[in-house]
Write a structure and sequence with these properties.
Elements lengths: L4 E3 L4 H10 L5 E3 L16 H16 L3 E10 L5 E2 L11 H11 L10 E11 L12 E3 L2 E12 L15 E2 L11 H7 L1 H17 L1
Parallel strand pairs: 1-2, 1-3
Antiparallel strand pairs: 3-4, 3-5, 5-7, 6-7, 7-8
């Protein structure tokens, strides 16, 4: 297949991560399609929002399009921010991070601060009749992959890497995602896990 795979995001960090997670694939981002329509992420779950974005990008570009919806789900907050992670508070990533820390002041103990990073990848525009590798599902004309990683929220940001909530999400070794190298993050992250599920299918299609 000679046409590229469109990563349906205007987030430069996400495009960079997918370039690292899907090496060898011809990727382009929405910055190459500046007239692409904005998508209202109105679905109640990560899969639904990923599907909305993938379908809109495919309809606009005609390319096979990959979108992900991801976020942090905090157990003490009933799974919030969840699908609202990128809209949890106005302003910057740091503003949203600080808002989440403020919401967690009533939960000081590590056992009360468990959380999950969740990612669902949706791909629209794939040829009909594809046999799916294990771990992939279909919904609303898209192929889906799900990745998740469990951790604990810290009380203050740590680390200079990553983005979003990475500086306050600590893994089993106690380091935050922002304290990991890029390779370490990709090896364990929710997006990395979902991307590895979808990679064999994409490699076959775009080889």
């Amino acid at each position: 297949m000679t046409a590229p795979l469109l990563i349906a995001s205007g987030n430069a960090h996400k495009l960079e991560e997918f370039q690292a997670l899907l090496p060898g694939l011809p990727l382009v981002g929405l910055s190459d399609y500046p007239d692409a329509p904005d998508v209202d992420e109105t679905a109640p779950d990560f899969a639904g929002n990923a599907i909305l974005k993938a379908q809109a990008a495919h309809a606009h570009s005609g390319l096979i399009s990959l979108a992900d919806d991801s976020g942090i789900a905090v157990d003490a907050l009933g799974g919030q921010p969840g699908v609202r992670s990128a809209r949890y508070a106005p302003g910057s990533d740091r503003d949203r991070l600080n808002a989440l820390l403020a919401a967690m002041t009533a939960f000081p103990e590590p056992a009360q601060r468990t959380a999950r990073f969740v990612c669902v990848i949706a791909i629209a525009g794939l040829p009909d009749g594809l046999a799916l590798p294990a771990g992939l599902t279909r919904r609303d004309g898209c192929v889906l992959a799900h990745g998740e990683v469990v951790g604990t929220l810290t009380h203050a940001p740590r680390g200079e890497g990553g983005f979003g909530y990475d500086p306050i999400f600590a893994g089993p070794d106690g380091r935050t995602t922002a304290e990991l190298s890029a390779d370490e993050k990709h090896a364990i992250s929710h997006r990395g896990r979902a991307a590895r599920l979808i990679q064999p299918l994409l490699t076959t299609l775009f080889s």
